[in-house]
Amino acid sequence: DLTVEPNALCVRTSRASGEALRVATAGEPSVIRVTALDACGNGVMSTAGDRFDVFLWDVKRGRRVNPRDPRLPRAHSSTYDRHGDDAMSGVCGRPCILELEGCWQPHSVHELTYSCDLAGRFDLWIQYTDPTGVHRPLEVASPSQLEVVPNRADARGSSLLPEGSFGQMLAASPTLTAGAELIVGVRVADRFG
Questions:
Q1: How far is CA 91 from CA 64, 67, 97, 120, 138, in A?
Q2: pLDDT band at 154 (very low <50, low <70, confident <90, very high)
Q3: Cα–Cα separations (whole angstroms), residue 171 to 55, 58, 165, 175
């Protein structure tokens, strides 16, 4: 009997799928499925020391979101990290976190679940790190144009605006006469601002 084993994972033939390559909702889990294949198209399972990572390039700000820069939000988390909990100050002074978990499923599928709390347009890169520590992007999926849409409106991220009669009234006196007109401006946002 002859047994033929799959070769090493190939970043050219492996593929990624899932709506989370194109669109996600801020703060909600999104799933990408990576089908790990060798150069001949055979399914490959995990070997000790290999992993997948996700990186984001912030299109609006024109830079990679990098955890080594404390002025920027965390946007890279290894599948070995359960949660990206060293959040840094982001938009409106709120923490911006990309959380990432990964696990192998049957049929050579590696499932990446991520959650990003910063809404906007990003280039999403999936990177494979082999057991020797060599990093390579998954070629058929990197980069993907990702739009993270705001979550539903939430009072925790919304705020009153100083414009209008409300701001003028507070500046003059915190007392309002019954029957007086009051105009309030509200900046409606999701819980991340």
A1: 16, 15, 11, 11, 30
A2: confident
A3: 45, 38, 10, 10
- DSSP reduced 3-state for 2: coil
DSSP 88-103: EE-GGG-EE-EEEEEE
Separation between Cα atoms, residue 130 and residue 44, nearest integer Å: 12
Both tokens of 69, joined, read 């820069």
Distance (Å, whole) CA 86 – CA 30: 20
Average pLDDT across the chain, whole number = 75
pLDDT tens readout for residues 107-116: 889 888 888 8
**What CA–CA distance (Å, rounded) separates 6 from 141?**
22
Give the CA diameter of the chain.
Answer: 93
pTM of the full structure: 0.69
Strand duo 63-64 + 30-35: pairing:
unpaired
**Token pair belonging to 61:** 């700000």
Grouping H, G, I as helix, E, B as strand and the rest as coil, residue 87 is coil
**What is the rounded CA–CA span in Å between residue 93 and residue 100?**
22
The rounded distance, in Å, linking the Cα atoms of 52 and 101 is 10
CA distances from 90 to 74, 122, 125, 141 (A): 9, 15, 21, 27
20 pLDDT more than 90: yes
Beta bridge partner(s), residue 31: 113
Identify the three-state secondary structure at position 39.
coil
